[in-house]
Design goal:
By secondary structure, the protein is mainly beta. The chain has one helix at about 5-15, and strands spanning about 45-55, 65-75, 80-90, 95-110, 110-130, 145-160, 165-170, 180, 185-190, 195-200, 205, 210-220, 225-235, 240-245, 250-260, 265-275, 285-295. It is built from one helix and 17 strands.
């Protein structure tokens, strides 16, 4: 078999199995928490849209490429938030497209506010077996053709924020749909597994212009080792930021963010792999573009004035 075929099979069977995360990986979680927690939609007092593009394990044949679009906004009069999330994730001969709508509700709780959110949507999974390159095209064990299925999905999240710190918990893939793909001579079946996300962070004002924003994200999925992202950002004048993240067993991530025109911002992350794959695919790149429109404060007594984390 050709090297391209072996590489593709590696990503389909290893990255798509229960021994790894089924949902795509991102570096800039702290810039877009709605991307994994429906409770965060509308948490800031603004309408916000974010586009993210990621190239994972650059130059490795069949490596993942991912695009995500999110838009969210609060409904101030009803203490609610709403959002839409669209995802496109391609790995080798497989492609995953997801469209989800989220809603949440905010309540005053202690010194902060607590948001509880739900997300519902549909996932489309497709496989094009004809793109596999085998040594013997007539081998009956190699599937042929293209297959596609659509399954429902759901997510749940909690998010709590105060003036100086925040914490959240969310579950993705709550439905646990079975995924069956039929080939010419065989079939493959797998299942969606719930992904759990726990995140926390805060802000420490170092002086009038500089603040420190440490953060933690823990990801866990059935039959796979849990993974931790631990890092911090330094933010200057609430517009320029740079930071470093350690992702356990995977990579060191360097990130930067720039805001301009008081409505538009861009983010970039560079990953340096530190595991056994570093000799084959040492880097990953992620770029983000965001736009927001600030809303006026509602003409009512406000429950809390949370700091708008960078």
């Amino acid at each position: 078999m050709s090297k391209k075929f072996l590489h593709t099979v590696f990503f389909v069977l290893v990255l798509g199995s229960a021994a790894a995360q089924q949902l795509p990986l991102f570096s800039q979680y702290s810039f877009n928490r709605f991307g994994f927690n429906p409770a965060y939609a509308g948490n800031k007092n603004r309408v916000e849209a974010i586009v993210t593009h990621r190239n994972h394990m650059l130059n490795f044949p069949g490596a993942p490429t991912t695009q995500q679009f999110t838009v969210s906004a609060p409904w101030q009069a009803k203490y609610m938030g709403f959002g839409l999330r669209v995802l496109n994730d391609k790995i080798g001969v497989t492609n995953h497209v997801s469209v989800n709508a989220a809603a949440n509700y905010f309540i005053g709780f202690g010194e902060g506010k607590l948001a509880m959110g739900l997300e519902f949507g549909m996932d489309q999974y497709s496989v094009n077996w004809d793109q596999l390159e085998g040594h013997d095209a007539t081998d009956p064990s190699q599937p042929a053709g293209a297959n596609s299925i659509i399954v429902p999905n759901a997510a749940f999240g909690l998010f709590y924020t105060t003036d100086n710190w925040y914490a959240g918990y969310s579950i993705q893939n709550m439905v646990g749909s079975r995924l069956s793909f039929q080939g010419a001579a065989n079939s493959t079946t797998s299942s969606q597994y719930m992904h759990h996300y726990i995140n926390a962070g805060g802000v420490k004002q170092l002086n009038d212009n500089v603040q420190l924003e440490p953060f933690l994200l823990i990801k866990a999925v059935y039959a796979a080792p849990w993974q931790m992202d631990l890092g911090t950002y330094f933010v200057y004048k609430n517009a320029y930021g740079a930071g470093i993240t350690y992702r356990s067993g995977d990579a060191i991530v360097f990130s930067a963010k720039l805001e301009f025109l008081e409505q538009i911002y861009v983010g970039y992350s560079y990953e340096m792999r530190i595991n056994s794959l570093s000799a084959y695919a040492s880097t990953s790149h992620e770029i983000m573009l965001g736009y927001y429109y600030k809303l006026l404060e509602p003409a009512r007594k406000k429950i809390i004035h949370p700091r708008y984390y960078f």
